[in-house]
Amino acid sequence: MIVGLGNVGRAFLRLLIAKETELRxxxxxxxxxxxxATRRAGWLADPDGLNPIAILNGHWPNPHAxxxxxxxxxxxxxxxxxxxxxxxxxxxxxxxxxxxxAAALExxxxxxxANKGPVVHAFRELTALAGERKKKFLCEATVMDGVPIFxxxxxxxxxxxxxxxxxxxxxxTNVVLTEIEKGRSLDEAVKRAQATGVAETDPAAxxxxxxxxxxxxxxxIVLMGVPLKLxxxxxxxxxxxxxxxxxxxxxxxxxxxxxxxxxxxxxxxDCTVQPELLLASDPLANLExxxxxxxxxxxxxxxxxxEHNPGIEATGYGLLADFxxxxxx
Length: 329
What we know:
Layout (H helix, E strand, L loop, with lengths): L1 E2 L3 H12 L1 H8 L7 E4 L3 E4 L6 H5 L14 H8 L3 E4 L11 H10 L3 E4 L2 H17 L4 E2 L13 H5 L5 E7 L2 H11 L4 H11 L7 H4 L2 H15 L8 E3 L7 H9 L2 E12 L2 E12 L12 E7 L3 E6 L4 H16 L2
Parallel strand pairs: 1-2, 1-4, 4-5, 5-6, 8-10
Antiparallel strand pairs: 2-3, 7-9, 7-11, 9-10, 11-12
Helix pairs in contact: 1-13, 5-6, 6-11, 8-9
Protein backbone atom coordinates (compact mmCIF):
# COMPACT_ATOMS: atom_id res chain seq x y z
CA MET A 1 0.00 0.00 0.00
CA ILE A 2 1.26 3.46 -0.87
CA VAL A 3 0.18 6.79 0.61
CA GLY A 4 1.13 9.56 -1.81
CA LEU A 5 1.77 9.00 -5.50
CA GLY A 6 3.86 12.04 -6.31
CA ASN A 7 7.39 11.91 -7.72
CA VAL A 8 8.72 9.66 -4.96
CA GLY A 9 5.76 7.28 -4.85
CA ARG A 10 5.77 6.88 -8.62
CA ALA A 11 9.54 6.31 -8.74
CA PHE A 12 9.18 3.63 -6.08
CA LEU A 13 6.34 1.91 -7.91
CA ARG A 14 8.34 1.91 -11.16
CA LEU A 15 11.26 0.29 -9.32
CA LEU A 16 9.00 -2.37 -7.82
CA ILE A 17 7.79 -3.28 -11.30
CA ALA A 18 11.29 -3.21 -12.83
CA LYS A 19 12.78 -5.38 -10.09
CA GLU A 20 9.86 -7.77 -9.58
CA THR A 21 11.70 -10.76 -11.05
CA GLU A 22 14.90 -9.96 -9.15
CA LEU A 23 13.06 -9.61 -5.85
CA ARG A 24 11.42 -12.98 -6.35
CA UNK A 25 14.57 -14.76 -7.52
CA UNK A 26 17.10 -13.33 -5.05
CA UNK A 27 14.98 -12.76 -1.95
CA UNK A 28 11.87 -14.87 -2.50
CA UNK A 29 9.83 -11.67 -2.13
CA UNK A 30 6.54 -11.43 -4.02
CA UNK A 31 4.37 -8.36 -3.90
CA UNK A 32 0.89 -7.19 -4.82
CA UNK A 33 -0.34 -3.60 -4.71
CA UNK A 34 -3.54 -3.63 -2.67
CA UNK A 35 -3.98 0.06 -1.87
CA UNK A 36 -3.16 3.55 -3.14
CA ALA A 37 -4.11 6.80 -1.43
CA THR A 38 -3.85 10.26 -2.99
CA ARG A 39 -5.60 13.59 -2.45
CA ARG A 40 -7.35 13.29 -5.79
CA ALA A 41 -8.26 9.59 -5.84
CA GLY A 42 -8.93 9.10 -2.14
CA TRP A 43 -8.40 5.78 -0.31
CA LEU A 44 -8.48 3.05 -2.99
CA ALA A 45 -8.13 -0.59 -1.90
CA ASP A 46 -8.45 -4.03 -3.46
CA PRO A 47 -7.06 -7.05 -1.57
CA ASP A 48 -6.89 -8.96 -4.87
CA GLY A 49 -4.49 -6.37 -6.24
CA LEU A 50 -4.55 -3.14 -8.22
CA ASN A 51 -2.83 -2.82 -11.59
CA PRO A 52 0.31 -0.77 -10.90
CA ILE A 53 1.09 -0.09 -14.56
CA ALA A 54 -2.43 1.18 -15.19
CA ILE A 55 -2.22 3.44 -12.14
CA LEU A 56 1.13 4.87 -13.30
CA ASN A 57 -0.54 5.65 -16.61
CA GLY A 58 -3.40 7.45 -14.90
CA HIS A 59 -6.02 4.71 -15.31
CA TRP A 60 -7.65 4.43 -11.91
CA PRO A 61 -9.81 1.35 -11.19
CA ASN A 62 -13.53 1.31 -10.47
CA PRO A 63 -14.17 5.07 -10.63
CA HIS A 64 -17.68 4.57 -9.22
CA ALA A 65 -16.69 2.23 -6.40
CA UNK A 66 -17.00 3.49 -2.84
CA UNK A 67 -13.48 4.21 -1.52
CA UNK A 68 -12.52 3.82 2.11
CA UNK A 69 -13.32 6.79 4.33
CA UNK A 70 -10.09 6.93 6.36
CA UNK A 71 -6.69 5.31 6.76
CA UNK A 72 -7.84 2.57 9.16
CA UNK A 73 -10.73 1.49 6.97
CA UNK A 74 -8.37 1.58 3.98
CA UNK A 75 -5.78 -0.61 5.73
CA UNK A 76 -8.44 -3.11 6.78
CA UNK A 77 -9.94 -3.29 3.27
CA UNK A 78 -6.57 -3.74 1.60
CA UNK A 79 -5.29 -6.31 4.10
CA UNK A 80 -1.75 -5.12 3.45
CA UNK A 81 1.47 -6.41 5.00
CA UNK A 82 3.46 -3.22 4.35
CA UNK A 83 2.57 0.48 4.21
CA UNK A 84 4.77 2.95 2.30
CA UNK A 85 4.30 6.56 3.38
CA UNK A 86 5.34 9.06 0.69
CA UNK A 87 3.01 11.98 1.33
CA UNK A 88 3.99 15.65 1.61
CA UNK A 89 6.01 16.80 4.62
CA UNK A 90 4.42 18.85 7.39
CA UNK A 91 7.46 20.21 9.19
CA UNK A 92 5.70 21.36 12.35
CA UNK A 93 3.58 18.28 13.20
CA UNK A 94 4.57 15.36 10.97
CA UNK A 95 0.88 14.80 10.28
CA UNK A 96 -0.98 13.12 8.70
CA UNK A 97 1.95 10.82 7.86
CA UNK A 98 2.46 10.05 11.55
CA UNK A 99 -1.14 8.89 11.87
CA UNK A 100 -0.83 6.72 8.76
CA UNK A 101 2.29 4.95 10.04
CA ALA A 102 0.90 4.41 13.54
CA ALA A 103 -2.33 2.98 12.13
CA ALA A 104 -0.40 0.56 9.92
CA LEU A 105 1.67 -0.73 12.82
CA GLU A 106 -1.35 -1.05 15.09
CA UNK A 107 -3.14 -3.10 12.43
CA UNK A 108 -0.16 -5.42 11.89
CA UNK A 109 1.70 -4.00 8.88
CA UNK A 110 5.31 -2.94 8.54
CA UNK A 111 5.60 0.87 8.23
CA UNK A 112 8.15 2.38 5.81
CA UNK A 113 8.45 6.13 5.27
CA ALA A 114 10.10 8.61 2.95
CA ASN A 115 8.48 11.38 5.02
CA LYS A 116 10.86 12.94 7.55
CA GLY A 117 8.17 14.44 9.78
CA PRO A 118 7.22 11.29 11.70
CA VAL A 119 10.88 10.50 12.35
CA VAL A 120 11.44 13.89 13.97
CA HIS A 121 8.18 14.04 15.90
CA ALA A 122 7.61 10.41 16.95
CA PHE A 123 10.59 8.16 16.19
CA ARG A 124 10.72 6.60 19.64
CA GLU A 125 6.97 6.07 19.82
CA LEU A 126 6.76 4.49 16.37
CA THR A 127 9.80 2.30 17.01
CA ALA A 128 8.32 1.12 20.31
CA LEU A 129 4.98 0.41 18.65
CA ALA A 130 6.71 -1.58 15.91
CA GLY A 131 8.50 -3.63 18.55
CA GLU A 132 5.25 -4.35 20.38
CA ARG A 133 3.61 -5.57 17.16
CA LYS A 134 6.74 -7.44 16.03
CA LYS A 135 6.86 -5.31 12.89
CA LYS A 136 9.39 -2.84 11.52
CA PHE A 137 9.38 0.94 11.25
CA LEU A 138 12.02 1.98 8.69
CA CYS A 139 13.02 5.38 7.30
CA GLU A 140 16.07 5.02 5.04
CA ALA A 141 14.66 7.24 2.27
CA THR A 142 14.30 10.29 4.53
CA VAL A 143 17.96 11.40 4.40
CA MET A 144 20.27 11.16 1.36
CA ASP A 145 17.71 9.23 -0.67
CA GLY A 146 18.77 5.59 -1.01
CA VAL A 147 22.17 5.86 0.69
CA PRO A 148 22.23 3.33 3.56
CA ILE A 149 22.67 5.84 6.38
CA PHE A 150 20.31 4.54 9.06
CA UNK A 151 20.83 0.86 8.26
CA UNK A 152 24.61 1.27 8.18
CA UNK A 153 25.02 2.00 11.87
CA UNK A 154 23.48 -1.09 13.48
CA UNK A 155 24.82 -3.45 10.79
CA UNK A 156 28.15 -1.97 9.72
CA UNK A 157 29.23 0.22 12.65
CA UNK A 158 28.32 -1.68 15.82
CA UNK A 159 29.70 -0.47 19.16
CA UNK A 160 30.57 2.99 17.84
CA UNK A 161 29.60 6.31 19.39
CA UNK A 162 28.60 9.09 17.00
CA UNK A 163 30.07 12.36 18.30
CA UNK A 164 28.82 14.58 15.51
CA UNK A 165 28.31 15.04 11.80
CA UNK A 166 28.47 17.70 9.08
CA UNK A 167 27.24 17.76 5.52
CA UNK A 168 25.26 19.23 2.66
CA UNK A 169 21.91 17.47 2.66
CA UNK A 170 19.57 19.57 0.53
CA UNK A 171 19.73 19.10 -3.24
CA UNK A 172 17.57 22.11 -4.08
CA THR A 173 19.83 24.68 -2.41
CA ASN A 174 22.89 23.02 -3.91
CA VAL A 175 21.42 23.35 -7.41
CA VAL A 176 20.23 26.91 -6.75
CA LEU A 177 23.62 28.08 -5.46
CA THR A 178 25.41 26.42 -8.37
CA GLU A 179 23.10 28.06 -10.92
CA ILE A 180 23.48 31.50 -9.29
CA GLU A 181 27.26 31.07 -9.52
CA LYS A 182 26.77 30.60 -13.27
CA GLY A 183 24.99 33.94 -13.53
CA ARG A 184 21.32 33.09 -13.10
CA SER A 185 19.01 34.98 -10.75
CA LEU A 186 17.50 33.32 -7.67
CA ASP A 187 14.15 32.91 -9.42
CA GLU A 188 15.78 31.44 -12.53
CA ALA A 189 17.86 29.08 -10.39
CA VAL A 190 14.78 27.87 -8.51
CA LYS A 191 12.98 27.21 -11.80
CA ARG A 192 16.00 25.22 -12.93
CA ALA A 193 15.82 23.12 -9.77
CA GLN A 194 12.10 22.61 -10.27
CA ALA A 195 12.68 21.52 -13.86
CA THR A 196 15.05 18.78 -12.68
CA GLY A 197 12.40 17.51 -10.26
CA VAL A 198 14.33 18.16 -7.03
CA ALA A 199 12.48 21.33 -5.99
CA GLU A 200 8.84 21.51 -4.93
CA THR A 201 6.35 23.93 -6.49
CA ASP A 202 6.78 25.96 -3.28
CA PRO A 203 10.53 25.85 -2.57
CA ALA A 204 10.32 27.70 0.76
CA ALA A 205 11.11 24.65 2.91
CA UNK A 206 14.35 24.18 0.98
CA UNK A 207 15.44 27.81 0.62
CA UNK A 208 14.67 28.65 4.25
CA UNK A 209 16.53 25.62 5.60
CA UNK A 210 13.54 23.69 6.98
CA UNK A 211 14.22 20.56 4.92
CA UNK A 212 17.83 20.51 6.10
CA UNK A 213 16.82 21.19 9.71
CA UNK A 214 14.40 18.26 9.69
CA UNK A 215 17.14 16.00 8.32
CA UNK A 216 19.59 17.15 10.99
CA UNK A 217 17.00 16.47 13.68
CA UNK A 218 16.24 13.03 12.23
CA UNK A 219 19.91 12.07 12.17
CA UNK A 220 20.49 13.33 15.70
CA ILE A 221 17.41 11.56 17.07
CA VAL A 222 17.99 8.22 15.35
CA LEU A 223 21.78 7.92 15.23
CA MET A 224 22.84 9.94 18.29
CA GLY A 225 19.87 8.99 20.44
CA VAL A 226 19.24 12.54 21.66
CA PRO A 227 15.70 13.75 22.46
CA LEU A 228 15.99 16.71 20.10
CA LYS A 229 13.12 19.01 19.18
CA LEU A 230 13.02 20.62 15.74
CA UNK A 231 13.03 24.11 17.25
CA UNK A 232 16.41 23.33 18.86
CA UNK A 233 18.06 23.28 15.43
CA UNK A 234 19.46 26.77 14.74
CA UNK A 235 18.36 27.48 11.18
CA UNK A 236 19.28 30.06 8.55
CA UNK A 237 18.39 29.62 4.88
CA UNK A 238 20.10 30.90 1.74
CA UNK A 239 17.78 33.83 0.97
CA UNK A 240 20.02 36.19 2.96
CA UNK A 241 22.82 35.63 0.44
CA UNK A 242 22.76 38.11 -2.41
CA UNK A 243 23.44 36.87 -5.91
CA UNK A 244 26.45 39.20 -6.10
CA UNK A 245 27.85 37.79 -2.86
CA UNK A 246 27.54 34.21 -4.13
CA UNK A 247 29.23 35.01 -7.43
CA UNK A 248 31.98 37.11 -5.84
CA UNK A 249 32.84 34.24 -3.52
CA UNK A 250 33.04 31.86 -6.46
CA UNK A 251 35.31 34.25 -8.35
CA UNK A 252 37.62 34.30 -5.32
CA UNK A 253 37.88 30.50 -5.28
CA UNK A 254 35.36 30.08 -2.44
CA UNK A 255 31.83 28.67 -2.44
CA UNK A 256 28.73 29.06 -0.32
CA UNK A 257 26.95 25.88 0.73
CA UNK A 258 24.03 25.29 3.10
CA UNK A 259 25.86 23.23 5.71
CA UNK A 260 24.28 21.01 8.36
CA UNK A 261 26.17 20.33 11.59
CA UNK A 262 25.61 18.51 14.87
CA UNK A 263 27.94 18.10 17.86
CA UNK A 264 27.13 15.97 20.87
CA UNK A 265 26.86 17.84 24.18
CA UNK A 266 26.25 15.26 26.87
CA UNK A 267 22.68 14.01 26.55
CA UNK A 268 21.82 16.45 23.76
CA UNK A 269 23.45 18.00 20.68
CA ASP A 270 24.15 21.43 19.24
CA CYS A 271 22.61 21.45 15.76
CA THR A 272 22.84 24.12 13.06
CA VAL A 273 21.83 24.72 9.46
CA GLN A 274 23.33 27.80 7.82
CA PRO A 275 25.12 29.03 4.70
CA GLU A 276 28.88 28.70 5.12
CA LEU A 277 31.71 30.08 3.02
CA LEU A 278 33.96 27.15 2.23
CA LEU A 279 37.49 26.92 0.88
CA ALA A 280 37.89 25.17 -2.46
CA SER A 281 39.84 22.43 -0.66
CA ASP A 282 36.82 21.54 1.49
CA PRO A 283 35.14 18.36 0.12
CA LEU A 284 31.72 19.94 0.66
CA ALA A 285 32.67 22.86 -1.58
CA ASN A 286 33.13 20.54 -4.54
CA LEU A 287 29.56 19.22 -4.55
CA GLU A 288 27.77 20.00 -7.80
CA UNK A 289 24.14 19.78 -8.86
CA UNK A 290 21.99 17.47 -6.76
CA UNK A 291 24.96 15.82 -5.04
CA UNK A 292 25.04 15.60 -1.26
CA UNK A 293 27.58 14.48 1.31
CA UNK A 294 27.96 13.81 5.01
CA UNK A 295 30.86 13.23 7.38
CA UNK A 296 30.30 11.20 10.54
CA UNK A 297 32.72 11.79 13.42
CA UNK A 298 32.81 8.59 15.46
CA UNK A 299 34.71 7.88 18.66
CA UNK A 300 37.11 5.58 16.78
CA UNK A 301 37.39 7.21 13.32
CA UNK A 302 35.62 9.52 10.86
CA UNK A 303 33.69 8.42 7.80
CA UNK A 304 32.49 10.44 4.78
CA UNK A 305 29.84 9.48 2.22
CA UNK A 306 29.11 11.29 -1.05
CA GLU A 307 26.02 10.75 -3.19
CA HIS A 308 26.68 11.88 -6.75
CA ASN A 309 23.84 13.66 -8.56
CA PRO A 310 20.94 11.43 -7.51
CA GLY A 311 17.58 11.61 -9.23
CA ILE A 312 14.18 10.88 -7.76
CA GLU A 313 14.80 7.17 -8.42
CA ALA A 314 17.35 7.19 -5.61
CA THR A 315 14.66 8.10 -3.08
CA GLY A 316 12.43 5.40 -4.54
CA TYR A 317 15.29 2.97 -4.03
CA GLY A 318 15.45 3.91 -0.34
CA LEU A 319 11.87 2.67 0.01
CA LEU A 320 12.66 -0.47 -1.97
CA ALA A 321 15.69 -1.28 0.19
CA ASP A 322 13.60 -0.88 3.35
CA PHE A 323 10.95 -3.14 1.83
CA UNK A 324 13.49 -5.94 1.39
CA UNK A 325 14.85 -5.38 4.91
CA UNK A 326 11.34 -5.54 6.35
CA UNK A 327 10.05 -8.71 4.66
CA UNK A 328 13.15 -10.76 3.80
CA UNK A 329 13.84 -13.36 6.50
